[in-house]
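Allow me, if you will, to draw on your knowledge of protein folds for a short while. I have a record of one protein: its chain in single-letter code and its fold written as discrete structure tokens. I remain grateful for any guidance, and I place the record below:
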Amino acid sequence: MKIAIAQLNYTIGDIDGNASKIIDSINKAKAQHADLVIFAEQAVSGTPAFDLLRKTTFLELCEDALVEIASCCDGIAAIVGLPILTREGTISAAALIQDRKVLRYVGKKHITARREMGFLVPSKGYEYATIKGHKCVIIVGDDLSRERDFDQSVETIISINARKYGKGTMTYRYEMMRNLSFVEAKNLVLVNQVGGSTDIVYDGTSGAFNNRGELVLMMKQFEEDFRIFDTKAANEPVAIPSNNDRTRMIYQAACCGLRDFFCKNGYKKACIGLSGGIDSAVVACLAADALGRENVRALLMPSQFSSDHSVEDAKKLAENLGIEYNVIPITEIYTSVVNTLKPVIGGREFDATEENIQTRIRTVLLMAVQNKADYILLNSSNKSENALGLCTLYGDTAGAFSPTGDLYKSEMYDVARYINRTFGNPIPENILDKEPSSELHPGQKDSDILPPYEVVDAILFRMIEEGQHREEIVNAGFDSEVVEKIHAMIMRNEKKRYQFPPVLRLSMCSFGHERLMPLTNKYGD
């Protein structure tokens, strides 16, 4: 049987647009004489659709679109994902279409994703179907990793999915599929979505295994793709994705998520504050790549505490990227604000108050550009500083979207080096070499209050990703005072993380709105 795999980028709520893409792929599959064409989970609706899954009108429109899709399936079978309203509630289903008719719906049994809980209900799970004389099992979503012992007469497992990208999950996903196809001695075909949906990005990377557990087809990552898998052909094995490409995939995921955030919301232009530091440099590179250099504008806003080399580094970066930039010194504005406040806070020593005024002034200027020139402000934070609260409310926490807020500081350096290797060194070496600093007071360095970020990030990773208690981390060889300090900073700065813009989730454990309380409770006493 020739199975066409349509790996497409869907938009939440754009039923007509999604259906049009599906129909185009059906016609393409027919032109290539495929027997079956398969589409991702919730392809018609887009995902995660959240409250739309509770709206009867929306669900009816999805079914109406499915009827139109089915009318195009003459001479070809199709499996299309969409939400279906049942007596028990809304299920995530795979619609099996043959001879222009919707024959049945196969629902998802296991609701494991947090973004689906409360919006979808479990169904009975996988079902068998004979398509063009070929015995298949159709399975939806995460059921693939939980179901075993299929009927021996089954030749091919067909899984439609919406698996989001997360650092380190690719190898696990393909190892699970390889093991399943080998143990069950069946072909396994998986189709996944691709593209960004606000804070989530789907990597695509659909694929097929033969009945010997060999990966014989792997589709593009973070791009739409269309391929034919012939179950009877002598398909040559291909390499399973490895962790060696981790940084490349992080970069591609961030670009994909950023690009789709703009495209799907109707935005075109982005502005960013360039400080001469690593974080804003990486975000500027991502924006220039994802949106086009002509759609990115930078403001360089030095204060009296900014070093000359930081300003020159930021200029050089902007020129290397070919983006428009302006230098707007904020010293006079800062002095005016501080003098205005003297009757209220005068006579006290310089502290975080004055430091934060600088950051908030910069945000006022950036937001003015957003409002006046229709630019969208990008946040250029990182996960390490977000976790520890090394960020100013209404200052560097501001922005419409954060493409790097789920990357640790050390990962920002990894991505920066990848950018320089791949795109001809747009980031000046001085930005990579100098010690991290916010330059909010004379001679300030992050190392004044913290150990090197390699140590900080190792501790944060154990706390956040691995869920280790402080005692476990100390027993692993980390200094107890440092561990306690980092833990205290995480706990004390919960309020800041609640007020962040949407953060693109590139790991499985993020400091994002609905993750905050479970994380901090986990590490609390």
About this structure: The mean pLDDT is 92. Residues 148 and 180 are 8 Å apart (CA to CA). The longest strand covers residues 77-85.
